[in-house]
Amino acid sequence: MRGKWAEGIPPRNFTWVIRDRLAISERPGGFAPNHRKVRRQEEIIWLRGNGFTAVVSLLPSPHNLQAYDELAMPALHAPLPAAGDVRTVLAGLYRDIHDRLSSGGQLLVHQDELSDRVMGVAAGYLVWSGRLSGEPQAITVVEHLVGHPMGPAGREVVAASGQLARHAGPRTTGTA
User: Fold this and answer.
1) Could you confirm whether domain 7-168 is CATH 3.90.190.10?
2) For 111-132, how does the pLDDT look when each residue is reduced to its tens digit (9 = 90+)?
3) DSSP character for 98?
4) N or C terminus: which one in the chain shows less Cβ crowding within 10 Å?
């Protein structure tokens, strides 16, 4: 690749949740009917070139994982169930995100689209990690960053995250 494309392109709906540390977006390459291999490659190149140390996929399927591997982009697969209790997945996911950020990592979290659930995971992490004091504040912050309201599915994830925070979160404000 040559010219401006050699640097890649940012994923659609890319949003920093913690500046230069934790971001959310739609799946690199786009969601299912709009997914393009070339776009996916350009977006992964952009992520690597901009210091991202890992991609966190919340997809229930392993889509993109092979592409991340082929392009030397470390990835974590944490399938978020569509129904039922998400706390088990969130507990391990938040601990992994926290450990990676604490060691200087820069992460992108995605599902197919930048959905309410991805917003909920991001807001939930802010509560779980102690960066924000409560669920309403975290929801408001993420809604402001993304530019639209969070629906019930995202709010349920934030509520589950709040329960985790009250029982097992690191409560270490400002470290990750």
Assistant:
1) yes
2) 999 999 999 999 999 999 999 9
3) H
4) N
